[in-house]
Design a protein that fits this description.
This protein is an alpha+beta fold. The chain is built from nine helices and eleven strands. It folds into two domains: about 180 residues, SMI1/KNR4-like (3-Layer(aba) Sandwich); about 100 residues, 2-Layer Sandwich (Murine Class I Major Histocompatibility Complex, H2-DB, Chain A, domain 1). It has a six-stranded mixed sheet, with helices on both faces. A five-stranded antiparallel sheet has the order 4-3-2-5-6, with helices on one face.
């Protein structure tokens, strides 16, 4: 059997053993989508992937996931995920390409927050506030915290209740124009009552902040996401089973791995996608298999299967 025949057999077994309807396959992938994916990967797709997606471009999402509850990713989802992964690439050289435009937007943000501060009798004192502290991200905000005097502690500071929706588009615009060459995730502001302000651009370092593991050791790079990890199946929650095209020192290019938003412990689940399908079919042949009607997440079931090999 070829890879598409094996995949169809896995689907048919599920249909014959489940009362719940599962998703239907889409038509074949377009050549333009293949070119877009290969451009994001910076290399050609593995032959088994082009063969599979020439058979079907993922699934229709109107029903349950086609692989034991997991969705078969369409080209649109693959492209979205790869584009997101590429945004995490941090340049060693950070530059602001249009300082005048950036400064203008930053001044708008500062002026907005300052306009929301109390004008008198702050904390019972007939004097102006000393400083504001707040954070801005493209889709969320922190603070603003207001300090009455230079000696006000973090415990004594107060938070201002303001409607940040009024400034959110300005923050998004600033992020959009600076993202290509700076790639910050958060802006931290200190604004003083004398008109001066400080701004710090910072980026999340998930690769070093999260204690990722690789099983076997040194087979998978310890990353949050990687633009050379090709998502094939999704749990609908930001976690994937996919193809690793840039393995660690002891890994094999094309290996199947789990990765995603909640996946800190990553496993090599199979040498390639066809090998994964072979393992699933072998498990389905067992009277007491761990796949049909299991209450466990497929990712966890595959990890257990891998541990017991």
């Amino acid at each position: 059997m070829n890879i598409t025949t094996k995949f169809q057999k896995i689907i048919d077994i599920q249909k014959n053993n489940s009362e719940e309807a599962i998703g239907t396959l889409n038509n074949a992938i377009s050549s333009s989508d293949i070119q877009k994916i290969e451009s994001l990967l910076e290399e050609q797709l593995p032959t088994e992937i082009t063969e599979l997606y020439s058979f079907a471009n993922g699934q229709n999402d109107s029903r349950n996931g086609i692989l034991f509850g997991e969705s078969f990713c369409s080209a649109d989802e693959i492209i979205r995920q790869l584009e997101f992964s590429r945004t995490l690439i941090k340049s060693e050289t950070k530059t602001i390409t249009n300082p005048e435009q950036s400064d203008r937007l930053i001044k708008q943000i500062v002026d907005f927050y300052v306009s929301k501060t109390p004008k008198n009798k702050l904390f019972g004192l007939k004097k102006s506030w000393y400083k504001l502290e707040f954070e801005c991200r493209p889709n969320s905000f922190g603070g603003p915290y207001i300090y009455a005097t230079e000696n006000t502690t973090d415990r004594e500071r107060e938070i201002l209740e303001i409607d940040v929706d009024q400034i959110s588009e300005t923050v998004k615009k600033l992020h959009e124009i600076e993202q290509p060459t700076y790639k910050w995730d958060e802006l931290k502001f200190l604004v003083y009552s004398n008109g001066k302000y400080e701004i710090e651009r910072s980026a999340y370092d998930f690769d070093n902040e999260i204690s990722f593991t690789s099983t076997p050791k040194s087979t998978i790079q310890k990353k949050y996401f990687h633009y050379k990890w090709l998502p094939i199946f999704s749990d609908y929650g930001g976690n994937y089973i996919g193809i690793d095209l840039d393995p660690d020192t002891k890994g094999k290019k094309g290996q199947v791995i789990n990765f995603g938003r909640d996946e800190e412990d990553m496993f090599v689940l199979a040498e390639n996608l066809e090998d994964l399908f072979d393992k699933l079919l072998a498990e389905l042949d067992k009277t007491e298999n761990r796949l049909l009607n299991s209450e466990n997440h497929l990712h966890e079931t595959l990890k257990e299967m891998t541990k017991k090999q």
